[in-house]
Amino acid sequence: MRRARAVVAVGGAWLLVLGAALVQPACGRQAPDGEAALRAGRYEEAIRALSGAVQGDPANVAARRELARALAAVGRYDEAETAVGGPTGASASTALANVLGEILVARGRTADAEQAFRRALDGGAEAIPARSNLATLLWRRGEREAALKEFAALGDLYERREARSAADLVAVGSALRYLGERDPQRFKDARDAYNEAIAADPRAARPKLRLGELLLEKYNSTDAQALFREVLEANPRDARALLDLAKAKNFDGSDEALELTRKALGINPNLVEARAFLAGLRLGLEDFDGAAAEAERGLAVNPSSPEALAALGAARFLAGDRDGYEAVRRRAATSAPAAADFYIALAELSQQHRRYRVAKDFARQAVEADSLSWRGWGVLGLNQLRTGEIEAARRSLERSFRGDPYNVWIKNTLDLLDTFSRYESRRSARFELFLYGKEAELLYPYMAALAEAAYDSLARRYAFRPATPVRVEVYPSHADFSVRTVGLAGLGALGVSFGNILAMDSPSARDPGDFNWGSTLWHEIAHAFTLGASDGRVPRWLTEGLSVLEERRARPGWGDDVTPSFLLALRDGKLLPPSRLNAGFVRPTYPEQVAHAYYEASLVAEMIEATRGLPAIRAMLAAYGRGERNDDVIRTVLKVEPAAFDKEFDAYLHRRFARQLAALGPAGGEGGGGELARLVAEARERAGAGDRARAIALLERARELFPEYTGADSPNRLLARLYLEQGDRRAAEQALARLVAHDESDLEAEKELAALRESLGDRLGAARALEDALFIYPYAPAVHTHLAELYSALGEPAKAVRERAAVVALDPADRAEALYQLAAARLAAGDRAGAKRDVLRALEAAPDFATAQQLLLKLRAP
Fold first, then answer.
1. Half-sphere exposure of 25 (CA within 13 A, CB side)
2. Residue 511 pLDDT greater than 80, yes or no
3. In Å, what is the CA distance from 305 to each residue of 138, 246, 333, 376, 626?
């Protein structure tokens, strides 16, 4: 087989990290109280005890080593260096040279660190860790062959079972991880070495952190977090463990990442990797200035930190500061000539900002700098896939996987690409629809027509036309769609836009009534316009807000609408102001905040258009495309300060929803509390007692208070039932029409509405309701058959043909009958050739089909 099943418990992480995780068993005399305090994270207590031990016995090497590590754990690197004698004094003790080298690396003084590591090789308890540290330093500096030679020697030590202590096993584990860059099987050895280190010293933090980092790198967040939490149970103030847990939480999309990172920095304000990670979190919020400031703080501690340099470079680049970016790039190249990691980080940060072509270019620079950067090849392939370069993506991903066959994301994506042979590409005027073969015949006519209508509508709106063809990939498996998007199953979204490459769930990917595929497609096409018009620089809040707004404009009932939970969040002050709305998408602080952010963003866009006009929105997109910052765009285009705009929007919300807010009151419940809940409850009680007239009156009052509410106890839903019970079909139809005008996915309500309208003689209205039902679930043959009959009666033969063709595409049990009906519809539409073709197909399925034979004779008659 080309690819083995991925093993997630392997990977790699950089060895040279300072913090409480450096606590290891030490030989010689120690200060027992100081060591216990250090392991527990009582750093000041440890520093006092260990300082006393050193003062009492300056020759106590073990105490000096542990004192240095205690000081380093809280970021007091200068004092830590002094504790081990500094660059000159350390030469007297090889036993202290390795820890000195680690401190110097944390400060970016790699030349001095190299000397310290080489001194440590002369003997002592830390010779093996020093050798691993030295090899890692060489690797990072671009001296790959020299580094690999050292790593291989350390691997030999492991094979000969000469590494026995936890510290030595961690060292060889990291060496084996680097050897895995050339021989992927060594990743398993790295995993095993870390596990042996844990067994050798179950109290030591570093082996657990290293193994957890490997697991996280291979997308196994659950097991990684278990290891990080185990460390934190023993030492709640281990800054490195807090940072690692923050990274795992960030991987899971949890808002805890930010707080955990801040907590780590509260313990060790000079933990440079935490500064760089915090910068990345700020970049996710599109806070480029804040990200740059955090990166600069990290670089003040370690001027050559690759993580901080990458974060600063990304902040400069994404903010449009090309000169600033070039300065950072030159600085990174000087610090690390083999700069693949720098470009990979830039690529990953760029793709987070929807700058996929930029990310692809950075990833290409990464593999040009290091052709053995399997991660670089993977990032390149994923972004080639996002920009529509399918075959080039496959080649890059294959190359990545050959070098690292344990990368779950890459394996999943390659497996997905292997299924592409089951799909069909169908072209309309401006779209390429990539549809699963078994449903392509059914979906194409509906999706193509809707996509073309969306393109025309949005081109008029935005005075912009995305490059064509716009590719739309439609996945019948949500897991496949999720892999296409993020490489792993479990994504909660329905669709995604990579510019003019779109992907979405097929209506078959979810249960009937779960979502509206039509509004989803319209939403994603809108992204192609707003992203294109802004060169991908529009902030998240505005592109999402405009897409939801365009859904609502496209068709009644489509797009998010106000809900009780949104109003309660507004009432309770949970909604973020427009100036901070991005955080609602990427750093939610309560379960429903992402959904609220989508709807709120649409209201911001709605208010801008209502108060400044559509040209203002076009001007905003153009300004973002020129690289202007969000606050500056608010000032220059909307002519208002951001803080004043926040207040304007808050007032707009409270005016717009004053009646609904009053109806909800302070209590909870599915429909909220207050007057609305009281009226619905009383109506249920009166209906149960047989007083239908009073119940209807109460529900009509409730409907007026909150007309948009569509929950299970929606007044409109209950009114429709009561009106039907009393035989008032017209009133029931009106109630259902009001309901679906605010609920895009209520399949049963649409079908019931169609039946009511037809019973009232409104065939056109019935057809419209069934059309809406098809945007929710197009797989019911009976709906298509009924629509065909309605359209025939309405004198719309082309639409009748479409519906008869849909029935055939669904492969009905009586295929001959379906083909005959299609042939008859084609004949009615004037397509004699098509009719003849389909009636012959019907007769192939059922040669004795008399009615079809009669139609064929009719078609052959002159």
1. 16
2. yes
3. 15, 19, 12, 19, 31
